[in-house]
Amino acid sequence: MKRSNDFLGAEVAGADRDRVYVIPVPVEWSVSYGAGAGSAPAALLAASMQIEVYNAGIDLDLQGAGITTLDPGIRSKEDLLSFLSGHRDLFRDALPVFLGGEHSITPWILEGLELRDVGIVWLDAHADLRESYLGERESHACAARNSLAFGPLVQIGVRSYSREERDFLRGAGGTRIFPFWNEGAWEAIRRLPENVYLSIDFDAVDPSILRAVGTPEPGGLGWEELMDLLTFVFEKKRVVAMDAVELAPAAHDETSSFIAAKIVYEAISRYLRRELPRET
Ligand SMILES: [Mn+2]
Description:
With 280 residues, the protein is an alpha/beta fold. It is 30% helix and 19% strand.
C-alpha cells in the first residue's frame, strides 16, 4: 500500500506517530447529475498543498502532527470492505479520513469498520433517505437510509428531499433533520452517543462558497457556521472516523477544490487540537 504525505505535504509527517490517515476512495457509480466525484480525491490532495501547515483560525501548528496519506487503490465497494477488514487495528488509535467519491461509500465504511451504535453527524443538502433510487438500493440517494443500521443520525444543511422521504422522516425514528445550524441541531448532536462518525457532503455548504458538487442546491451552511459546527462536534464528541464526499472537480473552478480541501483540513485540525501534546 502506498504511504505518502500527499495531504498537506511532508511537513505534517509524524514526529512521533501517525494520528490521522487520509484515504482516497475514488468510487463513482451511481452519481445522478454532475459526474466527476471519482476524480475528487486527487483534486483534494493536489489542492491541499496550497494550505498553510499552521492553522491560524484555531492557532494550531500541524508540523510533525502525524498526518499520513494511505492509498490502498480502492476502486469499488469490495475493495473498500476488504481494505477495512484487514486494517481495523490501524484505526483504533488514529482518525481515518475517507475522501470520496460519492456518498454511497458512507454505509460501506460504517460496515467495514464494524461501527455499531455510533452517532452519525451527516452534513448534506439532501436527505439521502430514499429506499431505492433509479432501481438501485445502494445509490448515493439512499446513503443516509442505509447508515441508519449503524446508529442514530443528525442531518444538518438538508434543504431538499422527496415526498417519500418526508413521509419516512415523519414515520420512522433514527434521524432528525435541520436545514440550518441552530440550537435544535446542537441539542440533537449533544444527545447522540459519545462516539461519532462525521460525514461531510460538500453540497451541505452554500454554493456561493463551493459550487463544484454533483448535485448543487442553493442555500446551505455558511463558512463561519460550518467552522462553528465542526468545533462543536469535535469538542463535544469523540469523532472515530469521517468522510468528505461528492466534490465534482471542474476545470474552470479550482476554488471549489481548494475550499473543499480546506474543510477537510479544518476538521482534521479540530481533531488534532485534542490529540496533540500541548505546546510549551
Ligand atoms: Mn449526500
